[in-house]
Design a protein that fits this description.
The protein is an alpha/beta fold and 241 residues long. It has 8 helices and 11 strands.
């Protein structure tokens, strides 16, 4: 049986309108794993909250953020040091969107603005051949839909990283380091409602960038295969010795 807490390293908040619904990143992750809320502890590193002792944590999820990794906020380095310690102890880590980029950056990868601009909406993702033997991705189909919202990407993977997923826009939608550290650019925690809200609230920016908001909204759909990644991650914790 799993002991210890799953740490949610919170790197920012969602949109104000979604906060008004009393929902934020940590709520979606907890719901997505299917575990009880008391299994988790949340630490808002962007607000200066101190990370718990390593031995109190069994695994970690790193959230998305409205910030950019290239802002080089002091809490980036604090989080990176902590993530490297968790990784060294082979405690499972899942970084999502900003968390995906932060992991790559922490281990020597390159993060920056994607030359193609913004990727937002319900997208198609394709697994690489290496995903077939990955404990987190092995049960997923080779192609599936996912929610995405990002302007920065992992431009270069860290040395030794295994590429697990990509699409025509982003070459690095998922990777693994070692045996139990994963980064995913897409958002397995986003519902169709959340995705539509992100598109609607960023309507002006999206239009200015030449994307069609109405087409993006029309393509939004539920992404249960992508969402299943969170249950796969939580299931791993019960298999740990």
């Amino acid at each position: 049986m799993m002991s210890g807490k799953i740490l949610i390293i919170k790197t920012g908040n969602t949109l104000p309108s979604l906060l008004d619904e009393n929902q934020d990143f940590e709520d979606w992750f907890i719901r997505g794993t299917g575990l009880e809320a008391n299994r988790f502890v949340c630490c808002a590193v962007d607000k200066g909250e101190s990370l718990p002792a390593i031995d109190e944590v069994v695994a970690a999820i790193v959230t998305g953020s409205p910030a950019y990794v290239t802002d080089l906020a002091p809490w980036n380095e604090v989080s990176a040091v902590y993530l490297r310690l968790l990784h060294r102890q082979q405690k499972p880590i899942l970084g999502v969107c900003y968390g995906h980029q932060l992991l790559a950056w922490a281990f020597g990868g390159v993060v920056g603005f994607h030359p193609g601009g913004r990727e937002i909406g319900t997208i198609d993702v394709e697994l690489t051949s290496e995903a077939a033997s990955d404990v987190l991705f092995a049960k997923m189909p080779k192609q599936f839909s996912a929610q995405a919202s990002h302007q920065q990407s992992v431009l270069s993977l860290p040395d030794g990283a295994v590429l697990l997923a990509k699409n025509s826009f982003d070459a690095h939608h998922a990777f693994r380091l070692g045996s139990s550290t994963w980064g995913v650019q897409f958002h397995p925690e986003f519902s169709a409602h959340v995705m539509s809200t992100y598109i609607s609230e960023r309507r002006d920016d999206i239009t200015r960038e030449g994307l069609n908001v109405e087409e993006l909204l029309a393509r939004v759909e539920a992404t249960p295969v992508s969402a299943s990644l969170l249950q796969q991650f939580s299931a791993l914790l019960y298999k740990m010795p």
